[in-house]
TrEMBL record:
InterPro entries referenced in this protein's UniProt entry, alphabetically: DUF1697
Protein name from the UniProt record: DUF1697 domain-containing protein
Organism from which the protein derives: Paenibacillus lignilyticus
Amino acid sequence: MAIQIALLRGINVGGKNKIKMAELREALETLGLSRVQTYIQSGNILFESEEDEPALRGKIEALIESKFGLSIRVIIRTADELAAMAANRPFSDEEVAAAEASFEGECLYIAMMLDTPQANKIEKLESYDFKEDRYVIAGRDVYLLFRQSVRDSKLSVQVDKLNAPVTVRNWNTLTKLIAMSQEMGNAN
């Protein structure tokens, strides 16, 4: 079975869209997903399944709506896709270190979209001046490097407009999900 990662958008943020991870794991197992694990409260779910991405996404979104009463969009990537994201990071260690030195907090993120953004939306994004913040679009993923707080950046607001839905994770979360998926794979 393939290791999949479902990334939920906008749960357990600021007291809104609350879902307890233990309840979510139990509910997902009723869909026939195996070895379901979650990481932190922001909706990172690892599991095994042979179903394709559209079918899984539809089932998970429907389950969250029926069980928890929330309309939450789900982005799914395979363990191999996450590993490829990390391996293909377009920013050098030096660029990341310089960004980290410019403020306290996370500076490297990955935005994962349901689909590849349309050319006209990419052109609109390219028209903005994001100061020293940088981005690289790779298919349906966007690498983000912030020189200031992500909360104060115009880039984070504009990336959200590229393609709905999109969900963003910091680099530490991405690397932790990769490590967890590798542990799942090694346990087979």
